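Re: that backbone. Tokens:
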């Protein structure tokens, strides 16, 4: 994703510019390393922290000597946590995780009810999946659950995105016509740990940004064990321990930092374009009494639409295609390319359809007639 420094969003959030540049410099070092062995994770942490301190002045971010001391303390903390994990001292690493979480507690935010989330699954033979198949991997199929950035083998989690586009991106950009999509909304408020890059106004978060960046490090796809996942997984363990207070984690997709962005345009100055790269992960912990082997807590929290497969319908006809101006910054003639893509239109289709608990049936198929909808998203 090409982001120029003149990008207007950087004026809104110079911390994001700092994050983007540091993570890409780290990624370039890993590419140049070009070895069968990885750069030790503690060296990558140190690089990120050192680069961050250098950037504080150039980004004109306000900080004090106490801030620098706190940053150095945080580096020691995550290095010790990862070293303990790699040495097999799991109890010690979990204790460090508790301390890390306490540093991050100020980033717990509430999501009001009726927020929109999306999920996608790719199929091999243009299959249509039902709503329950689109939820988390059921408890009786734990053998299918491998390591992901914020979850470990055997522990089911519900991963959701803020746009159908980012769900597709997370799947590795499969043929969209082989994908099933679904929209969910929370029927009650949720508290999540916000691991996205904060705005410049959140000065209290300056010292914890390197922890967030260290949870976003790129990894090699051919690795069975990914050392870059140690820190985010430890943070998830701390979430699971207090799941009654915090339901999950909000975080930037790493594609925001490392992938070429197929919808790049002047509209990328919009804050909404960045937000559509947000993901959420919710651990599935409480098995219900029915035979679906799904988390009762998550089923009761999220209502969903029916599933939708692009291949089953003509998504958009020419008479229904309505380009959407950005509507921000007074530049109404600037088109938001993501919103006008098939993914943006798919988001809007879902928002005008029925939602229900997985314990209830939905009658009728997903309504795809865009010209009936009065929705504009920036």
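Recovered sequence:
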């Amino acid at each position: 994703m090409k982001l120029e420094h003149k990008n207007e969003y950087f004026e809104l959030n110079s911390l994001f510019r700092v994050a983007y540049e540091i993570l890409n410099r780290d990624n370039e070092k890993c590419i140049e390393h070009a070895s069968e062995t990885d750069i030790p994770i503690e060296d990558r942490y140190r690089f990120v922290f050192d680069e961050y301190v250098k950037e504080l002045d150039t980004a004109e971010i306000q900080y004090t000597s106490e801030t620098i001391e706190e940053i150095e303390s945080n580096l020691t903390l995550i290095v010790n946590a990862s070293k303990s994990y790699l040495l097999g001292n799991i109890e010690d690493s979990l204790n460090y995780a508790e301390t890390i979480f306490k540093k991050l507690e100020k980033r717990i935010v509430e999501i009001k009810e009726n927020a929109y989330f999306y999920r996608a699954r790719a199929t091999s033979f243009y299959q249509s999946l039902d709503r329950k198949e689109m939820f988390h991997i059921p408890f009786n199929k734990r053998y299918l659950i491998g390591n992901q950035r914020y979850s470990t083998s055997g522990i089911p989690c519900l991963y959701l995105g803020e746009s159908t586009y980012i769900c597709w991106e997370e799947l590795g950009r499969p043929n969209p016509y082989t994908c099933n999509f679904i929209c969910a909304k929370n029927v009650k408020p949720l508290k999540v740990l916000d691991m996205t890059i904060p705005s410049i106004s959140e000065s209290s978060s300056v010292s914890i940004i390197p922890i967030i960046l260290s949870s976003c490090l790129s990894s090699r796809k051919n690795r069975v064990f990914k050392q870059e996942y140690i820190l985010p997984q430890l943070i998830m363990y701390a979430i699971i321990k207090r799941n009654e207070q915090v339901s999950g984690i909000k975080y930037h997709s790493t594609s925001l930092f490392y992938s070429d962005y197929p919808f790049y345009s002047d509209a990328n100055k919009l804050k909404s374009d960045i937000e559509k790269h947000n993901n959420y992960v919710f651990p599935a912990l409480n098995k219900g009494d029915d035979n679906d082997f799904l988390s009762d807590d998550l089923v009761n929290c999220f209502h969903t639409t029916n599933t939708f497969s692009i291949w089953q319908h003509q998504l958009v006809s020419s008479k229904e295609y309505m380009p959407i101006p950005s509507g921000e910054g007074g530049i109404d003639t600037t088109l938001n390319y993501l919103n006008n893509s098939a993914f943006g239109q798919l988001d809007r289709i879902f928002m005008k359809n029925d939602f229900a608990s997985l314990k209830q049936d939905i009658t009728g198929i997903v309504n795809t007639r865009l010209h009936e909808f009065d929705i504009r998203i920036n």
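The radius of gyration is 21 Å. Residues 1-378 form one domain.
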